[in-house]
Inverse folding.
């Protein structure tokens, strides 16, 4: 009995210890459960920041590429194209189709030089007829970047001649009068000098500017001013444009090299290949 009585407290103590253990385990479980409930769903680390930044950048690049793809057709192609306009001159067809840039288009045509001034040997084997607009930026680019090389290698050597014909686009308000100014200067044998002056000053083509250029070129200013104010050569400029439209010109600059059409402010190499081919015939 005594041994049993002594053992009972021990068992009780053991039971108590087990109870304590269970309680501790339960407490531990509760603590773990609480920790899980309060643990943040997303932990910010350097690795996560890098991943987020990469994802945002990728999305931005995709959006940018889509935008560029859709807007690609709006990039300038090397020629200013005539647009439909109620203000377009009634005697001239109103072209709207954008030409294909940088290639010879269609078979050679019989293109008239009319009575327009000729630069170079009039008996040269190759003739370039240019339809242009003094206010057109791409025409200005051709004048600055390509024409000097053509003149040096072909015009001055007597291999080709060049003819400038007017094609004033309706949305260039000063182009028509600038064309008339060049014709008025031709009356005093200064056509090409005025031609160059106009392209060198494309941003200043108001009538007052045109009259100042006549003074700069030492023209008879009274004769020039009367010519310009009376629109003496208006019909001549419009005839050039009408002829250009009949040859399929719808933008400037447009060139006919022995009748072979080339559109846009093309590099010298584009002209050279056609000119050389015509000279070899």
């Amino acid at each position: 009995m005594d041994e049993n009585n002594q053992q009972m407290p021990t068992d009780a103590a053991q039971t108590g210890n087990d109870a304590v253990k269970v309680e501790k385990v339960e407490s531990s479980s509760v603590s773990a459960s609480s920790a899980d409930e309060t643990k943040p769903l997303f932990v910010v680390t350097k690795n996560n920041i890098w991943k987020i930044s990469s994802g945002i950048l990728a999305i931005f690049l995709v959006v940018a590429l889509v935008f560029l793809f859709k807007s690609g057709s709006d990039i300038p192609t090397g020629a200013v194209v005539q647009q439909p306009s109620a203000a377009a001159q009634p005697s001239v067809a109103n072209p709207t189709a954008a030409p294909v840039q940088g290639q010879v288009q269609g078979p050679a045509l019989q293109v008239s030089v009319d009575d327009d001034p000729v630069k170079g040997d009039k008996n040269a084997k190759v003739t370039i007829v240019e339809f242009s607009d003094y206010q057109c930026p791409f025409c200005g680019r051709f004048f600055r970047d390509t024409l000097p090389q053509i003149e040096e290698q072909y015009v001055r050597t007597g291999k080709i001649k060049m003819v400038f014909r007017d094609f004033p686009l309706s949305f260039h308000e000063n182009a028509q009068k600038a064309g008339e100014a060049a014709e008025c200067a031709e009356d005093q044998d200064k056509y090409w000098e005025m031609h160059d002056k106009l392209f060198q000053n494309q941003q200043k083509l108001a009538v007052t500017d045109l009259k100042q250029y006549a003074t700069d070129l030492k023209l008879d200013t009274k004769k020039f001013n009367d010519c310009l104010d009376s629109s003496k050569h208006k019909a001549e400029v419009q005839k050039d444009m009408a002829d250009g439209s009949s040859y399929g010109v719808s933008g400037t600059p447009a060139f006919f090299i022995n009748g072979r059409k080339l559109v846009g402010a093309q590099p010298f190499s584009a002209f050279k290949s056609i000119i050389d081919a015509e000279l070899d015939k």
In short: The first strand starts at residue 80 and ends at 81. Confidence is low (pLDDT under 50) at residues 1-37, 69-77, 84-101. The two ends are 138 Å apart (CA to CA). The CA atoms of residues 236 and 273 lie 32 Å apart.
